[in-house]
Amino acid sequence: MATFLQAVVNGIMTGGVYSLIGMGQNMIFGVMKIINFCQGDLLMLGMYLTYVLFEGFGLDPYVSIPLVAIIMFAFGALLQSSLITPSLKSGNSSNLLFLTVGLGILLQNFALIFFKSDYRTVNSVVIGKIVEFLGINISLSKLVSFVFLLIITGLLFFILKHTTIGKQIRATSQNPIGASVSGIKTNLVYACTYGIGAGIAGIAGALLMSFYYVFPTVGTVYGTRGYIVVVIGGLRSVTGAFVAGIVLGLLETLGALLVGPSFKDTVVFLSFIIILVVRQNLKLRHQ
User: Fold this and answer.
1) Where in the chain are the domains?
2) What burial class does residue 187 get, using C-beta atoms within 10 Å of its C-beta: 0-12 exposed, 13-18 middle, 19+ buried?
3) pTM
4) Phi/psi at 130 (nearest 5 deg)?
5) Please, are residues 234 and 218 in contact by the beta-carbon 8 Å criterion?
6) What digits encode the pLDDT tens for the residues 27-42?
7) Residue 214 gets which letter from DSSP?
């Protein structure tokens, strides 16, 4: 039982990062109706940015979170306004798909040029420390990261519900033409939304650096998890992404406990397929 509870706690902690990735992805899809295939690579960029801030200025990963979020927001808004908005106007979804895939490949290759293929990590004041609670050992770095997840989730909901830009984002998501006619600058909303999505990916990357390592293709590993979270939790549902991320983390750690660490990915993808099949059958029955 103690081992099972340990796996559950680890799953919740790990799932928090997946929730952040999924929420960033859903923010972008909810407004622009595009699946951002470079979301994982934006996370990778946030991880490298955290690494550079640590190596160059000695900033702890948690201390660098606000700076990483601001830089990634600006980078995302620039990408949106310069590349994605023109593609949106073409009305061809294939262009957007290939554009985001191409951006991901470009970011990976830039990382490979500047940082090579070496695995890199940083030190933090909480790395390697363990907190014991009711006989369960919890990694302090993962616990702090999960607390940051809850804070970021709360801030995101506050922005969407109680700020002017949040209300404009929700209005544009529901009816972009109506929002434009009512005076909302939809291009600005698009840029802010993509910037928020990129900022969330950067924050997730900074949190990951406290207990993981970065390499040029790490975005593919976590980007795939992000897509699963979005599908399970529902497109356009930020709350669903939060819950689905936790569920995915639990599936991963419990799968490793039950069938072995080598097959944890098999458990995750098999469960994902089963969820898709069951959901489709339920939809057909309701029809």
Assistant:
1) 17-221
2) middle
3) 0.90
4) -120, 140
5) no
6) 888 777 777 889 999 9
7) B
